[in-house]
Design brief:
The complex is a heterodimer of chains A (about 375) and B (about 625).
Chain A (H helix, E strand, L loop, with lengths): L2 E6 L11 E7 L2 E8 L7 H5 L8 H4 L7 H16 L5 H30 L2 H22 L8 E2 L2 E2 L7 H13 L2 H9 L2 H7 L7 H6 L4 H5 L7 H4 L20 H25 L20 E9 L2 E9 L5 E7 L1 H14 L7 H7 L4 H5 L1
Antiparallel strand pairs in A: 1-2, 2-3, 4-5, 6-7, 7-8
Helix pairs in contact in A: 3-4, 4-5, 4-12, 4-14, 5-6, 6-12
Chain B lengths: L39 E3 L9 H5 L5 E5 L12 E6 L8 H5 L5 E3 L14 E2 L11 E2 L14 E2 L26 H4 L12 H8 L7 H5 L6 H9 L3 H9 L5 H7 L3 H5 L2 H4 L5 H11 L3 H5 L10 E5 L3 H12 L3 E5 L8 H4 L8 H13 L3 E3 L10 H7 L2 E4 L3 E4 L11 E2 H10 L8 E5 L3 H17 L6 E6 L10 H9 L3 E4 L1 E8 L5 E13 L5 E14 L2 E4 L3 E3 L6 H4 L23 E3 L10 H19 L1
Parallel strand pairs in B: 6-7, 8-9, 8-11, 9-10, 11-22, 13-20, 14-15, 14-20, 15-16
Antiparallel strand pairs in B: 1-4, 2-3, 3-5, 12-21, 17-18, 18-19
Helix pairs in contact in B: 4-6, 4-11, 6-7, 6-11, 7-11, 8-11, 13-21, 17-18
């Protein structure tokens, strides 16, 4: 059969985000896929070099709209490490709870995208509504709905407001009570099973070789999570499990996401129980006179998409000399996607892409 | 094994009978959270125009705009922040850096307007624009804009605990009151390097202080140099405007600290102690400053009085290349500063350090020379191209009550103790007055009592016309005096000195003060003559004010001197008095009688003298 070159995105209904893939197809079988990033380059890392340490906070969270909080955390952790700032114990708990809420919010957003892509509009709307409930919590805690600018070096920007603990519990119960509905309608739905099983399969070896992280790696059977390997915030203070699947296909990946959300909810309950009293913020130096010693550092965390890292260099001035984010979608979107798309049908491109949890802003930055 | 099914999804049908969650906007509105980061409001009363919000804004959405109609207040700028909502990202950094806490974010977030220019606006608050802020029942989202806002709707507001500045000072190490009152040791110990750097790092560089300082020192620059651990650089910045940092670092009135942004809700930056740190750290001013006198001009100036004004004018003129001779009756420089502030506040070495540096520039000092006796004023006028009078207020005033001749005068008492023969003091001393001189005298007397009567019960009492709230002494001085257990009797006036049969002082009879000032705010004390109080004491010191001594000026010249209503020497904008080529500055010219004001005068006069020559 004749081979055709097909441009999938950036102006394509099936494409999520400003991203493009060039597909070599035979009929509707994909022979070869080539990822074309670059449609969303905003030069964040360069912009960061022109703003003072504190002015970068409203900026870093905007790198990826789905994942603002982990970006904040990364930057705050790196600055803390460079400047030698301590974080109070309560702030570590607040951070963990906040980040787990962010993870649930992000996963629900991902679930919306996935369900929407596959035509499960009912589930997509539920997910969007439940994400909104979490945004309400963020609004209550930080004053912002999407970009919170909440995690700062030295802790967090404000303590929990009055009665916030109960609000978290209520919201999580509301969302949790819908899990059977989600399962019935989506995860255990035979139609979904048919659409996702054995699609975009990545073997364990391939995943490791290509630098897969997060759900993509965990769906191939590897128990890998930065929260366990290199605990930050208060993740070493409570017991929790890493959800794992073994098949490495889209179906496994989305099940890992589902299990992770449930695990996060349980973790939040445990963290809330154990949360100590005290201060949540150690004062940072005067932002107008804040020069950080000549040093460099690499910090990493488990974002909702996988391992997120930040390499931050200071040359002793009031601005970063260089900042570089290592984002999970970079590997997933450029190498693994190309592999996963091989021998799949054109109809499954979006399906695979979302199951790999690729977001274009993370690739381009 | 996962049990998937084709039938189970139909269970979701039950959702058909559940009320939709979607909010029916705009008929149904969502109430924003208490901390919501919405539109800005700014309390113009509290705002000082410091511009920190504009400095920290990552998007340069805030610009400081000069407001012409704003009434000028000392230590404030006539500027207010202007927001550009095309740029603002509502991060709230401006809120967390705002020192007075005037800038706030509200929970309002509707802005509907035909004019895009309306996105750029100067925020005010509901007190200043009451007609724009409506109660919730009158508010409507369909008209919502920056000119149609909900009342009492504060969202994200400043909280000192989470502010981006440090409201608390680095504690200055001081000797405990019980210990310090036993000797003349300097009780404020001064900052170490780390402490000074930490304190300097608090400065937000808004420069309100520079406006308030009479001599307009480049405060934020020299504080920044301390923060960067460059004391030499800092000293150079100080010497641009103030040639007596060791003195001013200890006894300055610190107008800067009164207006410091950080002091509005916290503690002001210790500008004075930081200056002292620089002056004390650098042992050799000459090599640190690398200043040279200007090219010789051949002009000669006589400076009468080596006080802060005289020293400064000599320094500024010497840098311009003129030849300067300074005359003073005392044995060393400093003038009133040398005789007045007790050793525990201002040691003589600190004064000499500053004076010696000015001398090293080539200024000639003629100490122990009394004008009118050793040298005639007329001769100076003939011999020199200009004369600067920085003679200060050197004579104490007396209360002139009955038996007042049995009392001591404060300035004489202080002078003798500091640079002359120590006085004998009694065990129960009464000091009349509530100003800084009175408290210096009281605290000095207490120390002398403890030295002369060790182990015995001694007491110092002060009597002042003014009540606590209007006492002219600085807060710091009052606090320290109270720590040292000096007894205060505010709002009492002296009536009579009571003597015993041998003619020795037995005590002071006081009368209750009705009011100190009249309706116009002038000093005019009135008393309840019948309400009396008797204070026991074996020694009384009068510290109720000082007067200048012009006796060295011959009568025919003195007649030509013009004085203002408040009995101050009148000078023009060049610092020149009504007599040709005689310039004046310091206490005899100013209402505010302190060192830094004298330096400010000296700057004016030195510029004036220079212009006078050309």
């Amino acid at each position: 059969m004749r081979e055709l070159e097909l441009y999938f995105g950036p102006q394509h209904l099936g494409m999520i985000g400003n991203f493009s893939i060039t597909l070599n197809v035979e009929g509707d079988r994909i022979v070869k896929a080539t990822a074309n990033p670059g449609f969303l380059h905003r030069g964040f890392e360069k912009l960061m070099e022109q703003r003072t340490w504190i002015q970068n906070f409203p900026l870093v969270c905007r790198i990826n709209v789905v994942e603002p909080d982990h970006m904040e955390l990364m930057y705050a952790m790196a600055v803390e490490k460079l400047a030698g700032i301590e974080v109070p114990e309560r702030a570590q708990y607040v951070r963990s709870i906040y980040l787990e809420l962010a993870r649930i919010g992000s996963h629900l957003f991902g679930l919306w995208a996935y369900a929407n892509m596959l035509g499960f509009d009912t589930v997509a709307n539920w997910a969007m509504y439940h994400r909104d409930l979490i945004l309400d919590l963020f609004e209550e805690l930080t004053g912002g709905r999407v970009y919170h600018i909440y995690i700062w070096p030295g802790g967090v920007r404000r303590d929990f407001p009055e009665g916030f603990k109960d609000k978290i519990i209520n919201t999580l119960h509301t969302i949790g009570s819908c899990v059977p509905d989600y399962d019935n309608t989506f995860f255990n739905n035979h139609i979904f099973y048919k659409r996702a099983i054995n699609i975009g399969k990545i073997t364990h070896e391939e995943a490791k070789r290509m630098g897969a992280v997060g759900q993509v790696l965990r769906a191939t059977g590897m128990k890998q999570d930065i929260r366990k390997i290199e605990p930050y915030a208060a993740y070493d203070q409570v017991d929790w499990e890493i959800p794992v699947r073994t098949d490495g296909d889209a179906y496994s990946r989305i099940w890992v996401v589902r299990d992770e959300m449930i695990e996060s909810v349980h973790m939040i309950f445990k963290l809330l129980d154990k949360m100590p009293k005290g201060e949540v913020y150690n004062k940072i130096p005067n932002p107008f006179k804040w020069n950080i010693p000549n040093k460099e550092t690499y910090v990493r965390c488990e974002s909702s998409r996988g391992e997120l890292g930040l390499y931050l260099v200071s040359n002793g001035e009031d601005k970063p000399y260089r900042a570089h984010f290592r984002t999970p979608s970079y590997n997933h979107g450029l190498t693994i996607l190309e592999k996963a798309l091989e021998n799949e049908s054109i109809a499954d491109v979006g399906n695979i892409m979302i199951s790999l949890y690729i977001t274009a802003p993370e690739i381009d930055r | 094994m996962i049990s998937n099914s084709v039938l189970k999804p139909f269970k979701a049908v039950k959702y058909l009978f559940i009320k939709p969650k979607t909010i029916r906007y705009p008929f149904e509105l969502k109430e924003p959270a208490m901390r919501y980061r919405g539109f800005h409001v700014n309390d113009w009363e509290k705002c000082t125009g410091c511009g920190n919000c504009a400095d920290i804004c990552p998007n340069q959405a805030i610009q400081m705009i000069e407001i012409k109609e704003l009434e000028y207040k000392s230590g404030q700028k006539n500027e207010r922040p202007r927001l550009d909502y095309g740029r603002c990202c509502f991060c709230g950094l401006c809120i967390d850096i705002c020192p007075p806490g005037s800038l706030k974010l509200t929970r309002d977030y509707f802005h509907i307007h035909f004019d895009p220019e309306s996105f750029v606006f100067i925020p005010k608050n509901q007190e200043t624009e009451p007609d724009k802020y409506l109660p919730p029942e009158e508010y409507s989202v369909l008209k919502a804009s920056l000119s149609h806002r909900k009342k009492d709707y504060d969202g994200f507001v400043s909280d000192l605990k989470y502010a981006l500045f440090e409201p608390e000072r680095v504690t200055m190490p001081v000797i405990a009151p019980e210990k310090r009152k036993l000797s003349f040791i300097e009780h404020v110990m001064g900052y170490h390097k780390e402490e000074a750097q930490k304190e300097a790092s608090r400065c937000l560089e808004c420069k309100l202080c520079e406006e308030a300082c009479p001599a307009h020192l480049k405060i934020s620059d020299y504080i920044h140099a301390i923060y960067e651990d460059k004391p030499e650089e800092s000293l150079r910045k100080i010497y641009e405007d103030n040639p007596i940092p060791s003195i001013c670092g200890r006894v300055c009135m610190a107008y800067c600290e009164k207006v410091c942004s950080l002091g509005i809700r916290g503690e002001a930056l210790s500008v004075r102690w930081l200056k002292r740190y620089v002056a004390d750290t650098i042992k050799d001013f000459t090599s640190a400053l690398e200043l040279n006198p200007g090219t010789p001009t051949g002009k000669k100036i006589a400076v009468i009085g080596a006080g802060p004004g005289g020293l400064s004018v000599a320094y500024f003129l010497r840098l311009k290349g003129h030849e300067v001779k300074v005359y003073d009756a005392l044995l060393g420089g400093g003038g009133t500063i040398r005789t007045g502030p007790p050793v525990y506040r201002l040691p003589l070495e600190s004064i000499d350090k500053d004076v010696n540096y000015i001398r090293s520039l080539g200024v000639e000092f003629l100490f122990n020379t009394l004008i009118g006796k050793d040298v005639m004023f007329e001769d100076l006028l003939n011999e020199f191209d200009a004369v600067f009078l920085g003679i200060g207020y050197t004579k104490s005033r007396s209360t002139k009550i009955k038996n007042h001749e049995k009392c001591e005068l404060a300035l004489d008492f202080l002078r003798d103790n500091k640079i002359g023969k120590q006085r004998k003091v009694g065990k129960e001393i009464i000091v009349i007055g509530g100003g800084n001189v009175a408290l210096d005298t009281a605290r000095e007397a207490l120390r002398m009592q403890n030295i002369q009567h060790p182990g015995e019960k001694v007491v110092v009492k002060t009597v002042s016309l003014e009540d606590w709230d209007e006492m002219p002494a600085t807060e710091e001085e009052i606090r320290e005096a109270r720590e040292e257990n000096i007894q205060f009797n505010p709002a009492w006036g002296p009536k009579e000195v009571i003597l015993d049969n041998d003619g020795n002082v037995k005590g002071l009879l006081c009368k209750k003060v009705k009011s100190v000032f009249d309706e116009q705010g002038r000093f005019a004390p009135s008393f309840y003559e019948e309400r009396e109080m008797f204070l026991e004491g074996d020694m009384i010191i009068e510290a109720i004010g000082q007067v200048p001594d012009f006796s060295f000026i011959p009568d025919n010249l003195f007649k030509k001197f013009e004085f203002s209503e408040r009995k101050k020497v009148k000078v023009d904008e060049m610092g020149m008095t009504s007599i040709q080529k005689v310039f004046a500055g310091g206490d005899i010219v100013n209402i505010n009688m302190d060192a830094v004001t004298a330096i400010a005068d000296a700057k004016v006069a030195s510029e004036g003298i220079d212009r006078f020559f050309s």
